[in-house]
Structure formats: C-alpha cells, structure tokens
Amino acid sequence: MIPKGTVKRIMKQHTEMNVSAESVEKLVELLQEIIVTTTQIAEQNAGKDKRKTLKARDIEQCDAERLRRKIVEVSERTEKVNILTNEILNVVANELERY
C-alpha cells in the first residue's frame, strides 16, 4: 500500500491549493495501478532475456506498452466513444506496438 500521507505531502509541494482526502485516495489508486501494470510488463521484458530479476531497463521499456494498454482499455470500456475516435485509438495503440 502506498502511504497516503506521503502522496498528500508530494501533492501539496506542487500546488498552492488545498488537497482533499478524496483526491489523494484517487491518486493512490492510480499509482498502484501503474505499479501493477509496469511490473507485469517488466516481468515480460525480463522473461524475454530469460532473467529472474527485474532491472531498471525492464521498467524503462514499459512506457510505450503501458500507454498502448491504457488506450486499448479506454477504447473498450468507453461506450460513448464514437467509431472514428475508437479507430484513432486503435491506430495509435497499433503504432505503439511497433516500438
């Protein structure tokens, strides 16, 4: 679990506004989701090299794949996305797979 106090302190260092408990909770949830997804992708990267240890380079290689997965997820779960927007998201996701 990511400490909410630490997240709130970091948030407050970068804004003059008040920070609600709800906003901290949402950010903690998002950060945890990012950590889970990044770890899963990094594990795949290490597995390709037949390693049992995650290294910094495995994490660094995750950005494009994590973004691609998020785009696909948004396009699949958003019922209000029109067909053209959905197609654009799919094209972007496919382009990211190349890298």
Automatic annotation (TrEMBL):
Pfam families: CBFD_NFYB_HMF. Residues 2-62 form the Transcription factor CBF/NF-Y/archaeal histone domain. Its main location: cytoplasm. One of its GO terms (cellular component) is cytoplasm. It is found in: Chromosome; Cytoplasm. Keywords: Chromosome, Cytoplasm, DNA-binding. GO terms for molecular function: DNA binding; protein heterodimerization activity. Binds and compact DNA (95 to 150 base pairs) to form nucleosome-like structures that contain positive DNA supercoils. Increases the resistance of DNA to thermal denaturation (in vitro). Belongs to the archaeal histone HMF family. This is Transcription factor CBF/NF-Y histone. It comes from Methanococcus vannielii (strain ATCC 35089 / DSM 1224 / JCM 13029 / OCM 148 / SB).
